[in-house]
Structure formats: structure tokens, C-alpha cells
Design brief:
With 179 residues, this protein is of the alpha+beta class. It has a domain of 115 residues: SH3 type barrels (Roll), CATH 2.30.30. 16% of the residues lie in helices and 39% in strands. The protein has 3 helices and 8 strands, in the order ββαβαβββββα. The strands form 2 sheets. A 6-stranded antiparallel β-sheet has the order 4-5-3-2-1-8, covered by helices on one side. A two-stranded antiparallel ribbon has the order 6-7. A hairpin with a 3-residue loop joins β4 and β5.
Length: 179
Amino acid sequence: MRDHLPWLGQGDIFTSVPIVDVTLTDAGAVQSTIIEGPAVLLTHDCDMDKPDSATGQPRIERMQFAKLRAVDALPASYQRTLRTNRNNPGPFEALYLGDVADLGECCVLLSDPYYIPSTYFIPTFGDYSDHPEGAAGARYTTIQLHDSRLGRLDEAQLILLRRKMAAFWTRLDPGEPPS
């Protein structure tokens, strides 16, 4: 994990965002609740940084998240698999994050994404051309409300997240040559 940038980026870790929790009642009905908790932003940077032609503001309508899960709350065999394969594409469904600040040992499950309307955060563009990681003339999406980011995935974790996302949804590991 590394420090987050002033602008939003895929892999930003939020300590408190709405999390949509869907469960099945004893009667077999689907029930949803909204809780506040930690989550990782899954939306890719370039999706967030496109301007609306009419307003010039970010045109993104929703941002995709996956909630952080405590590794020790998972079955013991799955915990071992995650820890053993922390830098491997498999299992495709889960990304092991290790210790995350005050949250403990965490992972995210790519089978558990949900969306938040971007207006919840009041997105706008900022010019960070003077930032060491900013590009000259580039505008990046920042948020004006509900910014509870504590860090972001490091570069190796981001690359692995992208590989896992592609593999999980297509069952094709982008690291393997086609057969």
C-alpha cells in the first residue's frame, strides 16, 4: 500500500463509503442494506478523467467499489490460499491486500462489486501538472465530499488487480499465451 494521490485513482482505499450489502432472508427474499465501511475503488482512472462536453466537469456517473473484507473472517482453507498466492493471479476472485493501516489483514472479492453514484463525492477536475506524478496539461478527477481515503494499492498490486479483474470476468488469464 502507498499514499493516495490528490486525485482519484483505481485502487484508492476508502475507510468509509456506503457499502451495498445484499442478503437473502429466511423466507428467501432478497434484502439490501447500506452500511458504511472500507472499500477499494475499482473504476479505472481513464473512466473518471473524461470531461462532459457540455459542462467540462467529469462525466462519470457511477464509481465501482469492492468492500474490504477481513481475511480472518474467511474459511481457513481460503485464508491459506490467499496468503500463499498473494502475488499470483489465482484465485482470480480475490486480491490479497495484507495489512491495511488500522483495518488489519484484508482482501477484496471481485465477485462483490457495487456502484455509488459519482455525485455522492461531488467530482471536479484539478490541475496537478506541478505534482511529480502529474502530467503537464492533464486534468484529474478529485472529490469535494466524502474523501476518506487512507492510501492506495501499490503499483504491483494495481497490476495484479487488473490481471485478476480481466481473468475473473473472462476466465482468460492475460498473463498466459493463448492456446
